[in-house]
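Weekly structure sync, notes
Attendees: PL (lead), two postdocs, one rotation student
Agenda item 3: pending single-chain targets
PL asked that the sequence for the first pending target be pasted directly into the notes so everyone works from the same version. It is reproduced below exactly as submitted, 211 residues in total.
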Amino acid sequence: PGLIAADADAGLVEVGGERQTVDDTVRKESVAPAFRSIDGFNPLSVHVPIDRAQGVTSEVLTPHGSLLRGQGFIVDMSGTLASAARAKRAAMFAGYGDGARDAAGGARGAVLLQLRELFDDVRFYAKNKAAYDKAQTRRLSMSRVNLEAMIDVVDGKLPLVFDVERASDILELIAFADEQHVRIVVDCGREAWMVASELALAKVPVILEPM
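Predicted structure, written out during the meeting:
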């Protein structure tokens, strides 16, 4: 029994200011849903026993970046090499703040515009894999490996966690989730309290930062 850190990077980041020790971000890609946080996890990191000593027995290894950041995995803090093999995929992570806005073209509306295009491409790919293999489809906005990674999201099997703060943005994402029939989670949610009723009605979980 213990605490679960829902947004963590122990074993992915040793020293935040030293790029050689940071494995939680695909820096040159704004759309990287196939990126798996667990692939860079070091269970022998010095941060793992520190977190465990403070009562944290499991963590969701969270990818960072701009728009579609990749897949987060839940892993135990046993500090054993076998812990990586036991890890389970938990969610897809995305942004909706300044980084995502800049990656999409400089406007929040452009973020949803790009996400709608991506979701449409994933659904098209899922229905036309044979034609895609024969290069008999229209050009799609993501590579095969990224398209495959998003299928469970658009099918509602895997939640999409948005790093989002503003109440107005949260309402936009609730409407987007309803439109696309996908499951979302609000992460950080500094102004989530302002739209608590809407979140409850939509059954959208919220992960709050301690501060």
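Discussion points:
- The chain has a mean pLDDT of 92.
- The chain is about 35% helix and 20% strand.
Action: rotation student to compare against the earlier draft before next sync.
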